[in-house]
Design brief:
Elements (H helix, E strand, L loop, with lengths): L12 E2 H11 L12 E4 L5 E2 L1 E5 L4 H9 L4 E4 L17 H11 L3 E4 L2 H5 L4 H8 L2 E7 L5 E11 H12 L5 E2 L6 E11 L4 H6 L4 E5 L13 E4 L2 H5 L1 H13 L4 E4 L11
Helix pairs in contact: 1-9, 2-3
The protein binds zinc ion (ZN).
């Protein structure tokens, strides 16, 4: 006889235990001075039963969490980035996200710059997706990486490789350089600050996001490929999911469907 009305057993875990597992991979002490990784809203001691994993803790993502009855949100970008947060008032997108999370009893944890920097973190994933070998840390801040392509490729072939690696339909580039590309630097998110380090280290190209007008003027033999902040950091979702699943195999963690790039290429 089939047993009816039996609810599947819900596996609960302390939000702080999930945070500890993430921090084992990407310790909070790695975070940049301006960053606000860690818990921002809710109760770290709460026993949570379902998490939503996303890149951004946007209002859409918080709404999705409410709809899907998640009591925890785990993201790359913190819900509150700038300190101090002086006011939380209705009608402001960020405030609305904060208030909805609080009202809905959702605890929010984010691993931002620690996830960028950690060995095996976002920058290492960028390097591996592009097929770089001999990868090392680029620059004093520890964010970016530099590596080699085992076989040189033409500039256009490289651009296509970037699009494919990050699922971007379009990229922005500076003037294309000639010859074969073998030396590549990467910096997840908005990494244009790594340009001078990349040039100095002999990279021919830097792949990053959020490059502004003036930084598309590049020295000879060097170019930037802007794959978009969002696309360069999308691997964060899979990475966070893998950490949660590995440590708590029975815990339900959903991947956000509402979290899309806020930028449209028409
Ligand atoms: Zn970012």
């Amino acid at each position: 006889m089939k047993q009816k009305n039996l609810k599947p057993e819900v596996f609960k875990v302390k939000a702080s235990a999930i945070a500890e597992a993430i921090e084992e991979f990407a310790p909070l002490c790695l975070q940049a001075e301006w960053d606000n990784s860690g818990f921002t809203v809710g109760n770290p001691k709460a026993e949570v039963s379902k998490a939503l994993i996303a890149l951004n803790c946007s209002l859409e993502v918080v709404r999705e969490a409410v709809e899907k009855e998640c009591d925890m949100i785990i993201t790359h970008h913190p819900l509150i980035v700038h300190r101090p947060c002086l006011s939380i008032l209705e009608g402001d997108l960020r405030s609305d996200a904060i208030m909805l999370a609080i009202r809905s009893g959702i605890t929010v944890y984010s691993s931002h710059t620690p996830l960028d920097k950690a060995p095996g973190g976002l920058n290492d994933i960028m390097a591996s997706r592009l097929g770089l070998v001999d990868v090392s840390v680029l620059g004093a801040d520890g964010f970016s990486r530099i590596g080699k392509l085992s076989r040189g490729v033409s500039t256009m072939a490289f651009v296509e490789r970037v699009k494919k690696a990050f699922g971007a339909s379009k990229v922005r580039t500076s003037a294309l350089i000639g010859g074969k590309i073998t030396s590549v630097a990467v910096s997840s998110g908005g990494g244009q600050g790594a340009i001078s380090d990349a040039v100095r280290a002999g990279a021919q190209v830097l792949v990053t996001g959020d490059v502004t007008h003036h930084n598309f003027y590049c020295p000879e033999g060097f170019m930037v490929v802007d794959v978009g902040h969002h696309f360069s950091e999308l691997p964060a979702i899979g990475l966070l999911e893998a950490i949660v699943k590995k440590n708590f195999p029975k815990f339900v963690a959903l991947l956000s469907e509402a979290d899309k790039s806020p930028i449209f290429y028409l």
